[in-house]
Design goal:
It is built from three helices and no strands. With 123 residues, it is mostly helical. The termini are far apart.
């Protein structure tokens, strides 16, 4: 059992370097163009929620790292979710940039506010 855990951790660590080439290859954690049809205010809301999830996962990973066997827990439990969240953040930022959303895409717009000044149709 202990050998299998060690092999799993070694395999996960060796494949961790593969995630740095996500910009040249498609991102395996998020469907391509997942956020393409969202409006700027929807992108802003998703950014806020996704950033909160990223902070939550980071806190859980930090807390697990402080305990015995925490590294294995991080690799097997939290790391896949964390990578998915980071991929979603990356694609949300790219979608906001592509749609030329206002610079305040890190915060959700107040309800009823239309930052584009148009009729509310998506870009």
């Amino acid at each position: 059992m202990r050998t299998k855990l060690g092999i799993s951790a070694l395999l996960a660590a060796s494949l961790g370097g593969c995630s740095t080439s996500l910009n040249t290859i498609s991102d395996p954690f998020v469907a391509p163009a997942k956020f393409q049809f969202l409006r700027c205010e929807d992108i802003a809301k998703r950014l806020v929620a996704t950033q909160a999830r990223e902070q939550e996962l980071r806190g859980l990973m930090d807390r697990a790292s402080a305990s015995t066997g925490g590294s294995a827990v991080n690799v097997l439990v939290y790391q896949p979710d964390y990578q998915t969240v980071q991929s979603e953040l990356r694609q949300l930022h790219e979608a906001a940039e592509e749609k030329q959303c206002p610079g305040g895409t890190h915060k959700a717009e107040p309800k009823g506010a239309d930052p584009r000044g148009d009729s509310g149709k998506p870009h």
